[in-house]
Design goal:
Layout lengths: L22 E5 L4 H12 L3 E6 L6 H7 L4 E3 L12 E4 L8 H9 L3 E3 H8 L5 E6 L4 H14 L5 E8 L4 E4 L5 E3 L5 E3 L1 E6 L3 E3 L2 E4 L8 E4 L13 H13 L6 E5 L3 H7 L6 E5 L6 E9 L2 E8 L2 E8 L4 H16 L4 H9 L9 E6 L2 E6 L4 H14 L5 E5 L12 H4 L8 E5 L15 H10 L3 E5 L2 H11 L5 E5 L7 H10 L3
Parallel strand pairs: 1-2, 1-4, 2-3, 4-5, 6-11, 6-14, 7-11, 14-15, 15-16, 16-17, 21-25, 22-23, 22-25, 23-24
Antiparallel strand pairs: 7-8, 9-10, 12-13, 17-18, 18-19, 20-21
């Protein structure tokens, strides 16, 4: 087939996996999910190559350790000799020269979610964790607890699971032991992202994940670059719920009114959870103890015991409750689930203490959506109630760099003692009046009585912090990016304090 000079026009009939591929090439291989998929395919014995224009650590180091060749940049020449299958990452646009070369050569292709479903989910029992918030923590807790229960799953998750030191794992093939001596396909835990799949398949990734059981944590407007409005997001989640088979299960946080609304459309059984009296699994008597939270659960009017999750905050209690409810449904005994949940090592970049120097604790968290920021700041305040809490916020996502959440952000930092907001990187294709303003956020926070400051860059933030921090302070750095390695740089400067 022939593509246009400017964009790739892929043949829909070639959107498939050929029989017995040997050489698989990934365009955009250095994304977190794509690199994980590359490692999984290499482990399965395929010859794997890839290309990307952003070849740098940590993904470049990971791929080098896996002995997966990575070609710098994008070029049609990277498809010579022709691979048997090409997997296209969602960072790749139709104008990408390698995508155009793919179209010109007429090679079979898949998106990352399609490939994950074809090579791995089809052979396992998929347990999909989805929702606007809490996906990474909940799926990591589920995978880690299954591991401790002797049912180690396969997984692909958007964060480094501390129990495994990786964001993916391959489960054993074939049948796996079950509670009570039964057997069935091994579990595969997958974080169900609502972001779109690929330029040739503009649907949410989770539509490809074949859920047998699913957890739905929350539904809010997000990803303003992908979804036109809240109704579009609801439609996508509704379609996902319809994909759960009648003999499957939806575990739904019905404290969230949109989740409760969407769960009514499920054809499968629904287990609700939350603080509400109507929930199947009801949370009560929550008590924060430093970085851990104790809580009590009841189900069907029966007390089911006291549990501990080693993270602060009501949102983490809800994440743990979803996991407990699902594992109980799968037949695991609560007396074995409880210690598995309590032993959770956590996930990198989710309320992760990066270090403590000169009496100052530095915490790293991925929070960027206003709701996630609010819950994270509340949880950190509960974890360190008597200490000064300084929150550093970098608006970095496509949504947080738009004005859509401008007002909401001003309402979510109240538990902090001080807030420092970094200037955002402007979006090139968005008019100035539609862009987020860090200066306006700082002004709004000051009007609420908060001590708030604006800084143009990371160096200025470090300068402010090192000149004002004192022993006992907690600095929470909220960003979904690397933030110029600010965490380690701050700790290094604190270490050099006289």
């Amino acid at each position: 087939m022939t593509s246009s000079a400017a964009t790739a026009s892929l043949e829909p009939a070639l959107n498939r996996c050929p029989p017995q591929p040997r050489h698989i090439h990934l365009i955009g291989i250095c994304g977190t999910g794509m690199a994980a998929l590359a490692g999984m395919l290499k482990t399965q014995g395929y010859r794997v190559t890839g290309s990307d224009q952003n070849v740098y650590p940590p993904m470049s180091d990971f791929l080098a350790e896996e002995q997966i060749p990575v070609l710098e940049g994008y070029s049609a020449a990277h498809l010579e000799p022709a691979p048997d299958l090409v997997i296209v990452g969602n960072v790749v646009r139709a104008s990408n020269p390698e995508a155009i070369g793919l179209a010109d050569r007429g090679l079979p292709y898949l998106s990352m979610p399609q490939a994950l479903a074809h090579f791995f989910l089809s052979q396992h029992q998929p347990l999909v964790v989805t929702g606007t918030h809490g996906k990474t923590t909940t799926s990591s807790l589920l995978a880690s607890t299954l591991h401790r229960l002797g049912a180690t799953p396969g997984f692909m998750i958007g964060g480094i699971v501390e129990a495994f030191g990786a964001n993916y794992h391959l489960a054993p093939g074939g049948e796996q032991g079950r509670p009570g001596g039964g057997a069935g396909p091994a579990f595969f835990v997958v974080e169900g992202d609502e972001y779109d799949t690929a330029f040739f398949n503009k649907v949410s990734k989770f539509q490809h994940y074949r859920p047998q059981c699913a957890i739905l944590t929350s539904v809010e407007f997000d990803h303003a670059d992908i979804f036109a409005d809240l109704e579009a997001i609801k439609d996508s989640f509704r379609e996902f719920i319809h994909r759960i088979p009648d003999n499957g299960l939806l575990v739904a946080n019905t404290d969230d009114p949109l989740v409760a609304e969407l769960a009514q459309a499920a054809s499968c059984p629904v287990l609700s959870y939350g603080f509400g009296r109507e929930c199947s699994w009801q949370v009560s008597r929550v008590e924060v103890r430093g970085l851990a939270t104790d809580f009590r659960l009841s189900c069907g009017g029966r007390d089911r015991g006291r549990f501990t999750v080693p993270m602060p905050g009501a949102h983490n209690v809800l994440n743990a409750t979803a996991v407990i409810a699902l594992l109980d449904h799968l037949g695991f005994p609560l007396e074995a689930i409880a210690p598995g949940v309590a032993a959770f090592e956590g996930v990198k970049r989710r309320q992760q203490v990066r270090g403590c120097e000169a009496g100052v604790t530095v915490v790293d968290d991925f929070a960027h959506h206003p709701t996630a920021v609010r819950e994270t700041v509340k949880a950190l305040r509960m974890a360190w109630p008597g200490q000064r809490l300084i929150v550093v916020f970098e608006p970095r996502t496509n949504s947080s760099r738009r004005a859509v959440f401008q007002e909401l952000y001003s309402q979510v930092f109240d538990p902090a003692d001080q807030v420092i907001v970094r200037e955002h990187l402007p979006l090139a294709d968005i008019p100035p009046q539609e862009q987020f303003s860090s200066v306006a956020l700082v002004q709004a926070l000051r009007e609420r009585g908060l001590k708030a400051d604006y800084q143009a860059d990371t160096e200025a933030i470090l300068c402010q912090l090192t000149s004002s921090l004192r022993p006992g302070d907690v600095v929470a750095i909220l960003s979904n990016g690397g933030f110029d390695n600010i965490h380690q740089r701050l700790l290094a400067e604190l270490r050099d304090f006289p």
